[in-house]
């Protein structure tokens, strides 16, 4: 079986492969974790709630990934629809439910102080830039998210993306240039 190149697969392709390939959902998770954390932090202003809601959203997305239909909209819109539902549910019940996580047998979430601080940093950043990140080509989007948001090194990224560190630097540079131009146009 040929090695799947998650970095070039579309979000819809990753969701379609999730039933047979757990790493495909891991790649999908990596693409959207920071955006969801920022979304929930903006909604709640609490890092612990943002983390809990993000975990529950991804668990619900994993459970319902077989029902995703790309002809009805983007995977991002689908995921954020689940996120909005989880947020509304948390407000209605005055707590974050963990039904999907329990059904999947996932351990309760525990967070370090450093993790909570990182979530607050993600939330306090420019959310418009995170939205525009989705508009970039997949290779640039993935490189920027891994380098800037996840703070991974170029050598580590090069290995995980099966390319050279100079290619990763180029992808990050081009992507940041594109983001900057889009942000300037939006102002």
The number of helices is 10
Alpha carbon gap, first and last residue = 48 Å
Which residues sit in consecutive blocks of at least 5 with pLDDT less than 50? none
Q: Rg, please?
A: 17 Å
**SS content category:** mainly alpha
Number of strands: 0
The CATH topology of the largest domain, please? Rna Polymerase Sigma Factor, Chain: A
Largest sheet: none
**CATH homologous superfamily (4th level) name of the largest domain:** RNA polymerase sigma factor, region 2, helix turn helix motif
Instruction: Identify the CATH architecture of the largest domain.
Output: Orthogonal Bundle
Give a quick set of tags describing it:
mainly alpha; Rna Polymerase Sigma Factor, Chain: A; Arc Repressor Mutant, subunit A; 71% helix
Describe this structure in words.
The structure is a single chain. This protein has helices at about 10-15, 20-45, 45-65, 75-95, 100-105, 115-125, 125-135, 140-150, 155-160, 165-185. The radius of gyration is 17 Å and the shape is globular. The chain is about 70% helix and about 0% strand. It folds into two domains: about 5-125, RNA polymerase sigma factor, region 2, helix turn helix motif (Rna Polymerase Sigma Factor, Chain: A); about 125-185, Orthogonal Bundle (Arc Repressor Mutant, subunit A). The chain starts with 10 loop residues before the first helix and ends with a helix. With about 190 residues, the protein is mainly alpha-helical. Helix 1 crosses helix 2 (about 20-45), helix 2 runs antiparallel to helix 3 and helix 3 packs across helix 4. The relative contact order is 0.12. The chain contains ten helices and no strands.
């Amino acid at each position: 079986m040929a090695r799947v190149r998650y970095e070039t697969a579309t979000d819809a392709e990753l969701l379609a492969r999730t039933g047979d390939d757990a790493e495909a959902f891991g790649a999908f998770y990596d693409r959207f974790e920071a955006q969801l954390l920022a979304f929930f932090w903006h909604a709640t202003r609490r890092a612990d709630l943002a983390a809990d809601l993000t975990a529950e959203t991804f668990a619900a997305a994993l459970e319902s990934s077989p029902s995703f239909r790309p002809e009805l909209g983007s995977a991002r819109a689908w995921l954020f629809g689940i996120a909005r539902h989880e947020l509304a549910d948390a407000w209605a019940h005055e707590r974050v439910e963990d039904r999907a996580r329990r059904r999947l047998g996932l351990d309760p979430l525990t967070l370090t102080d450093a993790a909570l601080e990182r979530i607050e940093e993600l939330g306090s950043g420019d959310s418009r830039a995170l939205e525009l990140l989705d508009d970039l080509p997949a290779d640039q989007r993935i490189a920027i998210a891994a380098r800037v948001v996840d703070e991974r090194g170029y050598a580590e990224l090069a290995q995980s993306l099966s390319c050279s560190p100079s290619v990763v630097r180029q992808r990050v540079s081009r992507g940041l240039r594109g983001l900057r131009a889009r942000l300037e146009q939006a102002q």
